[in-house]
Amino acid sequence: MRATSFGRACGSCVGLALLCLAALAPNARAGSITFSSATDIAGDSDVSTSGTLVAAYHFAGAATQVNGVNFDAFAIPGGASSYTVGNFTLENVDSFQNIDPATTGTWQSLSSNYTALLGTAADIRADRQTTLEMAGLTVGKIYQLQVWVNDALRDAWAVGFNTSVSDGNGNDQDLQPGSKGDVLIPAPQLPGQFVTGTFTADATTQSVYFGSGEIDGVVNAVQLRQVDGVTAAAPTPTTATAGLALLAGVMALKLRRRGVTGLLSATGGLI
User: Fold this and answer.
1) Same domain? 201 vs 115
2) N or C: which end of the chain has fewer CB within 10 A?
3) Domain co-membership, 244 together with 179
4) Exposed, middle or buried: residue 241 (CB in 10 Å: 0-12, 13-18, 19+)?
């Protein structure tokens, strides 16, 4: 009977152990991103050179270099809903846009390479969310993300139809796509906007979500950089030790109530 009581007690303790460990386990969701305000596209210096380049991609366009940063081609040939290049995967995107840049206003100050970077884009559908998943991250490192949104095909009246960038944790930013002006109502030809976000990786992947309003949006390019050279200290054993101590205490109480003695404690003593 004692063995049976011991077995039942241990069985209950195993269940409690799993609950305790689940409660103490770190959240697997990727970290929150702190976004800057949306910034008007102005020149090559928009492209950050802070820290070390992890990856930079030009959606649906050719490889190009802007401000010394190499943007690799990220092909979106159509016929699928998910595309992967390197450690980046773009999901829920099924088309792309070729954009003829405007020729006046701010556009005149942009380099030919920057103009080319803004000349193609992934199409962000209004009826669903597009996800960019970035893998191969190092937990504890600080990363900087940049996203560009430009659609010079838009008429001036459509400037208000934004592309949103979100981390899925309640942090987001809306980006204006720019416009080609309007022949009926005089309006400047405006390039779009970009946003910069920073986050500390708490997982090896980080997801970013793109959305749009009543009409489809665009994303032209993204860049990810590591902006610190030091990995954050590994978690101390404090949490694990506290969890084991709590678990040992619960087990001891349950076993005492069942009259089970002689069980070794977590510190090597006898209960």
Assistant:
1) yes
2) N
3) no
4) exposed
